[in-house]
Please model this.
Amino acid sequence: MPATTNVEAKPSNGKQIDRTALEARLVRELDGGRAALPILPHVAAQAIRFANDPNSDLRKLAEMVEADPPIAARLLAVANSVIYTRAVRVSSTRLAIIRLGLEGTRDLLFQVVYASSTVGLPRYQDLVIRSFRRSVLCGVAARLVSDKMRYRFEYDYLCGLLHDIGEARIYRILANYKEAIDPALLEDLVTRYHRRAGAELAIAWGLPEPIIETCAHHHDDPEKASRLVKMVMMADVLVAMLERRQAVASMAAAVATLAPSAAEGPTSADGATPASPPATLPSSTEAEMATALDGAPGPTDAGAALGPTSAIWPTSLTDPSGAPEPTSATWPKENDAPANRAPSSSSALPVVAAPVVATAPAAANTETSAEPTPEDRDAADFARLATLGMDRELADTILVKLDEAIADLPV
Model:
């Protein structure tokens, strides 16, 4: 579920591209079959073969990994992250592979390859990195779901990790267009075409069929989805819930840091507390809260995220929606009475020279227009998990383990 907050959309010529023309151009590039297709390193391709061969030689795999220094360095760094170390660090690629096992090495090699494909974009770099980090967490969640639901799929981690890899491909294609792309249109195109883009990439890389299936079908009707695809759907929902809860917790912590200073207030030499204007958020706290909101997903619908494309975001920095036009009856006229004029005895009401402050009309039905609370969104996601076959108790258990894993996410 791509996000569009903080989207860089500043092309060199500033020209806005037509939606129909943009989509047609994107489809033509995808139809060509080679647009933004990163080459799969030889060591990653061989890792799949090694993992499926019970007679594989770990030493040979280590030699192949070491032949690609950037991949070897990253694999060693990830293998030494807290989630894998058990408090004992390894100093060689061979020891890292022994610790991880063939399947674990295969999975992390693809994670490293995926990470390398997220850099070097002229635009949308932050969105691609966010998509990648979320994909790593989905890989961890998919493995937890596979284990707790007793699925035991061979490629559970890779299915969770790579199911949204098409997002990075679409962003890379669109980032090379010189024209400006509206953030809402950008999100829509990524949402609608990332499945196709991801499945084509998985096929080009020669990945196993289960991974291709999850790339292509993870947004299908849950009732018709296979258990493998449902596993990825569950992982998606659980990650969205965890990220939302963390964003809310970050906001609450930021607000809590203001409470003591705001309550105490400054004191004068005689001990009295002088009157002062209301406390404002420090700029650093504002940035932290903005970052927390920025990363917070909406409900399961990607388009409901709070941001410049949402219905409640201000479209003007001058007047609120519904403010009177300069020609309306509530706007001050050139011949209006001067300010502070005392009312005459014959006047029933004082003359007001200042313009009337207009506010947006209240919603007719507050129940339907109110923004869903985090509790409402959690309830909707628990209901969706139930339709996929996961009860609330198991979901809470996996969320706890996922929260522990994210503390040292190996990205």
